[in-house]
Structure formats: structure tokens, C-alpha cells
UniProtKB/TrEMBL annotation:
Annotated keywords: Oxidoreductase
Top-level taxon of origin: Bacteria
PANTHER family, per database record: COB--COM HETERODISULFIDE REDUCTASE SUBUNIT B 1
Gene Ontology MF, one: oxidoreductase activity
One Pfam family recorded for the sequence: CCG
Oxidoreductase found in the keyword field: yes
Domain Cysteine-rich residues, every copy: 7-88, 157-246
Organism this protein belongs to: Lyngbya confervoides BDU141951
InterPro entries: Cys_rich_dom, HdrB/HdrD_reductase
Name used for this protein in its record: CoB--CoM heterodisulfide reductase iron-sulfur subunit B family protein
Length: 301
């Protein structure tokens, strides 16, 4: 285990609004593990991939500023959102390449930052998802030693989605097509990982604003396959996946013509349960699909 882990915390938009339980559970989990988070309260929305539809320079400048805020603290930037990781991580890769191959472009980005009296991007910080921090920095052996409530008997199906795995050229601790980091984490907590087709595919969220029927069909298909594989719950590292798979599950059921009722947990909620944190402190009562079956299976309802 790495000692005195400290990160510049980028909570993102959804965790501070529609998925407040993600913000809450991340705070409880990191506090229990002794991980220090310095929240970047001046950070801006990453754009969720939409800024580049108007201008790549806009996406790069906004997120260069976000990264520069972490650089000023001399800390890696930590996010618990797969979409934020994909967008900011990809910008970081692009700007680090620009330092060598396109310095004029990087100078243009930094000039725009200077006009707004913002610190320049220097390329000295790492952009890291919470999953990578737990697996790579904290370490699964150290995490296992902190477990107070082993999740024995709970069948957990990871839903990686697409952005976390394939938005960047390099992926730490995992394979973009055959990932195992979440499943390894489940085992460290005492849970049984469920492997199923669709765990690395899109949840359908990006389609939801203009092709709602197709979006819900995609979400329903992922849930149906997980249920057929024996999952007691889905666990996702992405709040947007959570919105489509949990918050909209009643609507998804109408589209697929089947009752589903599969609980969907945020990654820090699952870890928090294993650490012995009370379910209410993890915001488990906020979900649309009841998480009570999960708690009952663990004997902590």
C-alpha cells in the first residue's frame, strides 16, 4: 500500500447533482481508507465529449485548466466518473504529445488560459480514475486488510461501459477489451464476480437525448444479460451509466417488456459496504431500483 495517498479531487457535475450518492460515498470511502482528497472547487465541467463537436480547442483549453488546477497542488487529478476520465485523460494525452510534436498548439492553449488569468498547462500531473487509484495506488492486498464486512455470497456484475476503457491510448492496470480490475476488486472484497457479455459495451446514455427508445433497448439488453448470468447487482464506475441503468430502469422495463429490478451500485458504494460503512452514509436509499436485496443478501438490511 502506498502511504499518505492524496489527490486533487475532481467530482464532476453528475455526482454533485443527480447522483449525489456518488459524491457522498466517495467521501465516506476515502475517509475510511485514509485517502486525502483536495476538492478542485474552481474546476469546470469537462464537457462530456460535447465541447469537441464545436471545437477541439475549446475542449482542450477547458480541461487544460482543470488539469492545471491539480498541477498547482502538485497532485494527480482524481475523478470517479468514467466520462470525465475519458475526456480529461484524453486531453492530457493530447497535450503531452503536443509538448513534443505541436508546441505551437500547446502555446495557443496556454495563451487562452493566460487571457483568463489561469495557470498554464505543464503536463506534470496524472489524470486517474478512482478505480485505478484503488487497484494501483492503494492496492488490493491493502484493501483486503481493511475489509470489515466480507461480501460473501454477493454476485457482482461489473459494468465498465465504454469511456473508461477506450477513450485513451494507454490504460493502466487493465486490458481495454478484456478487463479484470473490477472483478479482481470484487474478489478482494469477498464478492463473486459475474462475467457476462456486454460488460464493456455502451449503456446507451449518449443516445438518450435523441434516440430514447434505442437507448433504453441497449440498457435493457445489458441488464437482461447480467440477470441471466446470475448477477445480484451491477456495479459501475460511471455516474452516467448509473443514470441510464438505475434511474431509468422503470422506463427501460416498459421498452423491453420485462420486469428487471436489478440494483445498480456505484463502485465506492460497494467498497464502502465492505469497509463496514452504514448504507445510509453511502446514499443507498437514493437509488430508483431498491438496493435492499443486496443488503438482505449480506445480512445488513
Amino acid at each position: 500500500m502506498a502511504t499518505s495517498l492524496k489527490y486533487a479531487y475532481y467530482p464532476g457535475c453528475v455526482a454533485q447533482g443527480a447522483c449525489r450518492e456518488l459524491y457522498q460515498s466517495t467521501h465516506e470511502m476515502t475517509q475510511a481508507l485514509g485517502i486525502e482528497l483536495v476538492e478542485l472547487k474552481q474546476a469546470a465541467c469537462c464537457g462530456s465529449g460535447t465541447f469537441k463537436e464545436e471545437s477541439q480547442l475549446l475542449e482542450d483549453t477547458v480541461n487544460a485548466r482543470n488539469i492545471a488546477l491539480a498541477e498547482q497542488l502538485n497532485l494527480p487529478l482524481l475523478t470517479h466518473c468514467s466520462t470525465c476520465q475519458g475526456v480529461i485523460g484524453h486531453v492530457d494525452e493530447r497535450l503531452k504529445e503536443a509538448q513534443t510534436h505541436d508546441p505551437d498548439y500547446l502555446a495557443q492553449v496556454n495563451q487562452l488560459l493566460q487571457q483568463q488569468r489561469c495557470a498554464p498547462y505543464q503536463g506534470t500531473s496524472e489524470v486517474k480514475h478512482l478505480l485505478w487509484a484503488l487497484v494501483g495506488d492503494y492496492g488490493l492486498e491493502a484493501l483486503t486488510r481493511r475489509v470489515r464486512q466480507r461480501l460473501v455470497g454477493l454476485n457482482c456484475a461489473a459494468f465498465y461501459g465504454c469511456y473508461l476503457l477506450r477513450a485513451q491510448k494507454t490504460l493502466p492496470f487493465d486490458d481495454p477489451h478484456y478487463p479484470t480490475s473490477m472483478e479482481n476488486l470484487f474478489e478482494a472484497l469477498g464478492a463473486m464476480p459475474v462475467y457476462y457479455q456486454g460488460r464493456t459495451q455502451c449503456c446507451g446514455w449518449p443516445l438518450s437525448s435523441y434516440a430514447t427508445q434505442q437507448s433504453f433497448q441497449m440498457a435493457g439488453g445489458r441488464i437482461q444479460v447480467a440477470i441471466a448470468a446470475g448477477a445480484d447487482c451491477l456495479v459501475t464506475p460511471c455516474p452516467l451509466c448509473h443514470l441510464n441503468l438505475d434511474s431509468r430502469q422503470p422506463e427501460v422495463e416498459k421498452v423491453v417488456g420485462q420486469s428487471l429490478g436489478l440494483p445498480v451500485l456505484h463502485l465506492p458504494q460497494l467498497v464502502g459496504l465492505a469497509l463496514g460503512i452504514e448504507p445510509t452514509k453511502l446514499g443507498l436509499e437514493r437509488h430508483v431500483v431498491s438496493t435492499r436485496p443486496v443488503l438482505e443478501k449480506l445480512g445488513i438490511a
